[in-house]
From TrEMBL:
The gene is otsB. It comes from the Bacteria. This is Trehalose 6-phosphate phosphatase. It catalyses: alpha,alpha-trehalose 6-phosphate + H2O = alpha,alpha-trehalose + phosphate. Pathway: Glycan biosynthesis; trehalose biosynthesis. Its cofactor is Mg(2+). GO terms for molecular function: metal ion binding; trehalose-phosphatase activity. Gene3D superfamilies: HAD superfamily/HAD-like, Trehalose-6-phosphate phosphatase related protein, domain 2. The keyword NAD does not apply. Keywords: Hydrolase, Magnesium, Metal-binding. It comes from Terrimesophilobacter mesophilus. The keyword Nucleus does not apply. One of its GO terms (biological process) is trehalose biosynthetic process. Its EC number is 3.1.3.12.
Amino acid sequence: MSALPPALVAAIERIADVDELLVALDFDGTLAPTVDDPASARSHPDAMAAILALEDLEKTRIALVSGRSIGNLASVARLPDSTILVGSHGAEFRFGGAVSGPELDGDERKMLDRLYAAVETVAARYPGARTERKPAGSGLHTRMSSPADADAARADALAAVAALGPSSGITERYGKDILEFTVREADKGTALDVIRHRTAASAVLFVGDDVTDEDGFAVLSGHDVGVKVGPGETAASHRVADPQAVAELLALLAGLRERKAASPR
Ligand SMILES: O=P(O)(O)OC[C@H]1O[C@H](O[C@H]2O[C@H](CO)[C@@H](O)[C@H](O)[C@H]2O)[C@H](O)[C@@H](O)[C@@H]1O
């Protein structure tokens, strides 16, 4: 029996029938179960199989929309060049294998170097804290820190970044056990608009688990379907429990879309 809510199954049946479909998926916590080491995250095998089946279909495009850099995302997601990748929350894109963004100017590059140094200096002070360099920013991971150390590391990092000056242009965003800083602001909502336009999608299915995915849910409308993974407030119309349920949802969609391709009206 399906673990998917009946209203979601009905929404998937409807969206499977649109002409040009864009399936936009967050990676960590959505396709890939959360793990302590970001480099070892992998898509649920059933989700991977469904994505590859969808990739084979005409009028169906798959996009991963992630906070990871494109290079990092490509190495963990291991999908074909035909898969659209959005990295750094929308500061980078990969279409047809060609990567664009973030194309920083000289001042931004200098500030990025200062940002890397500031966040890495802070991380070195706290057990379990680690950093992730991105093309336009730096992430402070605290999953492996005690709650007290995580709180202190975040406060310390916010102060260190504030000390880079009010005109640094740096903004921050929170995710699951990560505080990120960037010299080039981007968000998944703007990114979804870009790929919707680029693929001439009739409708978008967007699935995500984190607060950063709410920007994506906020731009959905019309025949689009938004699915939140796990607990927490959301603007999405549907919810599933975990990446296992996401895999089931994608398998359902792939089967319906294959049937539509085999017997077009
Ligand atoms: O937008 P996403 O694809 O969900 O990326 C968000 C962040 O994901 C990664 O960190 C998160 O997942 C790790 C692996 O499960 C976990 O260890 C970490 O605690 C999470 O924050 C990635 O490393 C970040 O760069 C992304 O921004």
